[in-house]
Input
Amino acid sequence: MDITGVINGGLRRVPAWPLYIVVAAWAGWMFWLGLTGGLGVEPINALEREYGAMGLKGLVLGLMVTPLRKYTGVNLIKFRRAIGVSTFFLILAHFTVFVVLDVQSLERVWTEIVKRPYVTVGMAAFLMLIPLALTSNNLSLRRMGGAAWRQLHKLTYPAAILGAVHYLWLVKGFQWEPIIYLGIILVLLAARIRWQRRVVMA
Amino acid sequence: MAYRWKNDLSRADVTPRQLFMNRRQIMAGAAGLGAIAAAGAARSQRLLEPNTLEEIRGYNNYYEFGSGKEDPARNAGGLVTAPWTIKVDGMVDNPGDYALADLLDGLTVEERIYRFRCVEAWSMVVPWNGVELADVLAKVGVQPEAKFVAFETVVQPEVMVGVQRQVIPFPYVEGLRIDEALHPLTLLATGIYGEPMANQNGAPIRLVVPWKYGFKSIKSIVRISLVAEQPPATWNIINAAEYGFYSNVNPTVDHPRWTQATERRIGGGLFSSREPTLMFNGYEAEVAALYDGMDLNAQF
Output
């Protein structure tokens, strides 16, 4: 049997649900570290960044599923919903820390969203993910039909780009990490394009 | 001359404090301005307690040692701070390469407990030990044509991971107008809490300008130049729209990417609340006159 078959065979025996538990446990652990000094002397900013960065990693992971199957045959599709919903949960946590612990007032939150482009961009990405999280269940998939559902879930593409731009925009000086995230996301999106030679009629 | 400025942040200062505040009101002149200054001082009393040495040494911006807040504490151990020579040049009577001890010889190191406000909207209270920059400049003899002071941070590429990565251009440079440099609040600090300056805090000697955002308070100084023209300042070069040459703490002029109206004191934990930022970081009575007639929105 070929290696891809072995991997896929193994993956079939791994359930997806533990991912939810792992991510929730990780988020709780980070919160606990923040409470007890494990995230340094400025835990609010640290926690905000931990959740945000892990959310961005989740977006990247979710975008990897399709190209991985296309180019290697390794099939992670059964994990994709768990990846997506967990990612939404992390970004919701990131947003909640921003509102409740960091900015601390709804009025100021609104000012931040309107006045600061990097917050606007992050907020736009978050809003795009909400309908995706709400429709990440079998009932929604059946009601909408596969084509419409897939069309809607292409919102992950702009959301991921905006998420990386959000990160790139908030750092000071020239830093590689957000550029690398944005680069990976763009490569993963480019990997979806069907490169066809178009015949142009004269 | 040491002790020209009186700490208003000392815990030992409780009894004479009322006197001191009254004097500040008189100095402020106009009744309205005095009331504002008094309100600011009263509000700032909540911020009296200095941060712990652990906090001051554990949360730093020193991009030569990495861009993360805990990077400098982790990476600055290799900085060579002895021997330390400071080049003094430009419009001075006694230019030259000074050994640090020679430059400080005869000057009184005093404690100054200052609020420290980062442009990133976090803050600390730091008990610095240092000498007034004015006293050092008096020793080298400032010539009348000198209108600005330029400073430069050491570059030791072999021990500075951030320099290898070029996150920002190095050497880090900063500058002050001459009247800012000569102001009694402006300090050259050599220690914190009576202990020698930790490398990540800018050992062996750094500038402290408490009414300006922290990045103006350049670390590990190897060169001081008296010049006629406004000198370059690193963050101002990188992004002039975000970091002005003056960079006075001003709650009414926002950084384009975040508000400057409030700040978070380091050390309050996960549920610490934001504090209102004070004009000139609470030193309005002392320094506002330096900027009379200037549009602080345009020259931020």
Remarks:
- The first helix of chain B runs from residue 17 to 28.
- The radius of gyration of chain B is 18 Å.
- Chain B is about 25% helix and 20% strand.
- Residues 242 and 257 of chain B are 8 Å apart (CA to CA).
